């Protein structure tokens, strides 16, 4: 395994830039540090870092001897004065020594490969960093400490309870299966069903916990979407103008509603257009709307409902949405539409009501969050769906076909091993670690 390095803090002008080196040759970096060696190195001591014979910087260096490090390999961390130019010079020397730049997630991948953590814990590191809410951070941290791993151990035990009976019978096929034994198999399947459903049902609320609640503002051009965005954020974030088609790309910003972080997305006005840039924005708007937890469909109350409004209403049917009529300060012209709320962003009328309705919806999502005390990643969810499918099929059988049960229960156990990484393929690892940032 080669020796890798990367900045573990942003490479921008800042107080300190920290760099991590991991691998068999990591200690070779001491050649650049005046007076440092594996025996005498002190974490609080200042070392002159030399490159190409010149002193460039005073640094701190910490040595973690394998296997007692984040990656399980020899690790050296160096803290530079926070100028990216200094660090770039040091990196030239690192290349000369033979270190190579780390891939995204490669340190954590090595931690996994060296048995420092399982895949659910590795995934939790990425979640911990990207989580937008404190609850999300809390759950990711629990996962880092092994909550999902324990959950999976419990599920595995239930499978093994059932499998033991099936296999005992396969070994002694001349004996009929006792009712009591068959019952144990089905009882375990019922417990599995409940457990797996619990995990899956909390997926959506956990996603909200991780990403925040997403509200998209949609509508035809000029209805006041960007104005509403600015009002809710209490700042002039989005450009407002009376030119239809002002917002081209979606704009996302966060605000806190009743203590819950909400990610608010202002989108391009929806209409048919021959402008390629506007069209591109409209396509992206469609995606944002589909991914949102709530869509505010904004209509301009000072004009009659038209085909563009109807198209927006049509395309958001089936989504969780509120229909909001804006510009109530003007004479109301709109007719023939059922709406949830009438507001004027301009003078603030109706805004407290709108905020109230939103807060209600957001806190319902919040209440769901505590269904199951584990957080599920999209990857894990895919496995749990397949496993639940198998369990439901088996528990629906009236008689036990031993060969089929044995095969299916073993397959599920294999899938569980892939969640934790007890068994894995290069594809699984690529899929997980490619989404990490460099240096993690
Ligand atoms: N500077 C720095 N801060 C960091 C990290 C890091 O790697 N470097 N971490 C991660 O990115 C997190 C901490 N995670 C860690 C996890 C395990 C070990 C570790 O195995 N340490 C050895 C130390 C042995 C010794 O005392 O010499 C151990 O406990 O065995 C270190 C950090 C957050 N902050
Ligand atoms: N009278 C009145 N005008 C409003 C109100 N809200 C917004 N406007 C005006 O409506 C026009 C369009 O507002 P924007 O917020 O840019 O509309 P938009 O929906 O973001 O428009 P696009 O980005 O083009 O899709 C601007 O001139 C706003 O000042 C309101 O409550 N009352
Ligand atoms: Mg706009």
Second-tier CATH architecture of the largest domain: 3-Layer(aba) Sandwich
| Total count of domains | 3
Radius of gyration: 28 Å
- Overall body shape: flat
The small-molecule ligands in this entry are: ligand FFO, guanosine-5'-triphosphate, magnesium ion
The pLDDT mean sits at 91
Oligomer: single chain
Strand fraction band? Answer: 15-25%
The CATH C-level name of the largest domain is: Alpha Beta
Output the CATH homologous superfamily of the largest domain.
P-loop containing nucleotide triphosphate hydrolases
CATH fold assignment of the largest domain:
Rossmann fold
For the largest sheet, list the strands in their spatial order. Answer: 3-4-5-2-1-6
Class by helix and strand content? alpha/beta
Number of helices: 14
The residue fraction in helices comes out at 40-55%
What does this protein look like?
The chain has 440 residues and is of the alpha/beta class. The protein has 14 helices and twelve strands. The chain starts with a strand and ends in a 7-residue tail after the last helix. The structure holds the ligand Nc1nc2c(c(=O)[nH]1)N(C=O)[C@@H](CNc1ccc(C(=O)N[C@@H](CCC(=O)O)C(=O)O)cc1)CN2, guanosine-5'-triphosphate and magnesium ion. Magnesium ion is lined by residues 225-226, 238, 246-247, 266.
Q: Which labels suit this protein?
A:
440 residues; alpha/beta; Gyrase A, domain 2; Four Helix Bundle (Hemerythrin (Met), subunit A); Rossmann fold; 3 domains; 6-stranded mixed beta sheet; 14 helices; flat; binds the ligand Nc1nc2c(c(=O)[nH]1)N(C=O)[C@@H](CNc1ccc(C(=O)N[C@@H](CCC(=O)O)C(=O)O)cc1)CN2; binds guanosine-5'-triphosphate; binds magnesium ion
